[in-house]
Each structure stands twice: as structure tokens, then as C-alpha cells.
């Protein structure tokens, strides 16, 4: 793979800077470009100015939770096809269903399994390009 050949661009919506740094490093090493947003408003702005292949969505954020933001993004026609993967420490029964109901295409548990992350993301991106 050429160094300038990217696998895709991922928008990571996460209010915690440590999590953002970690995930960005892992995804960059795997060949993805990462665009970051710290809240819902910024996420929508970043979607407007970037071509995004997948959204990693933190569920617990201060101003607007990930469920609300996911539903909002999915309601916008031009973004409705972008896969959204919930990233959450909420692993109670019903949380997975709640994120899928909000429109998330998948679900990754925190703490994030760094070794599995790239494969999980690749699966979601491949699935969305084959639809």
C-alpha cells in the first residue's frame, strides 16, 4: 500500500482528549485518516467539510449524547448512508439495542480493544461500500 493511499476517513466524535489521541494513533497506523469532533455541533460541521467513510460515535458526551447525535445525522439525507459505530462504556443489557435503535450500524465497547478496532472498522466500511 502506498503511504498516501488511505483506507478511508473516519470522523471520531469524542469529548475525551486521551481517547481521541489513542484512537487517532491506532487508526492512522492502520492507514485511516481521522477527523475529530468534540461535540455534536462540531461533528455536523466536520461532516459538511470532509468526505467521511465512517463515524465513530462516543455515546456519553456533555452537550448532546451520541444517540441523539446519531439520530440527527441519520435524518440528514446526504449523511444517512454513512455507517455510525457507537463507542460506549455502557454495556448494560439494552444498550446495544438502544444504539442500534438510534441508527448506529454497530457497537464497540470501551475500553476499546485496540487490536480488534481496525478489523471492526474495516468490516463496517466494507459493508457500507458493498450496499
Q: Helical content, roughly?
A: 40-55%
Quote the beta fraction.
Answer: 15-25%
Number of helices: 5
The gyration radius over C-alpha positions equals: 14 Å
Low-confidence segments, given as residue ranges, are: none
Run of helices and strands: EHEHEHEHEH
Largest sheet geometry: 5 strands, parallel
Give the beta-strand count.
5
Shape: globular
User: For the largest beta sheet, what order do the strands appear in spatially?
Assistant: 2-1-3-4-5
Terminal CA distance: 25 Å
CATH class: Alpha Beta
Brief synopsis:
The chain has helices at residues 17-29, 40-49, 66-74, 95-101, 114-130, and strands at 8-13, 32-37, 54-58, 84-88, 106-109. With 131 residues, it is of the alpha/beta class. The chain starts with 7 loop residues before the first strand and ends with a helix.
Strands, helices and their partners?
Layout: E1 8-13, H1 17-29, E2 32-37, H2 40-49, E3 54-58, H3 66-74, E4 84-88, H4 95-101, E5 106-109, H5 114-130
Parallel strand pairs: 1-2, 1-3, 3-4, 4-5
How does this structure look, described?
- The protein is an alpha/beta fold.
- It has a single domain (8-130), classed as 3-Layer(aba) Sandwich (Rossmann fold), CATH 3.40.50.
- The chain is built from 5 helices and 5 strands, in the order βαβαβαβαβα.
- The protein has helices spanning 17-29, 40-49, 66-74, 95-101, 114-130; strands at 8-13, 32-37, 54-58, 84-88, 106-109.
- Strand 1, helix 1 (17-29) and strand 2 form a beta-alpha-beta unit.
- The longest helix is centred in the last third of the chain and has 17 residues, at 114-130.
- The chain is globular and about 30 Å long.
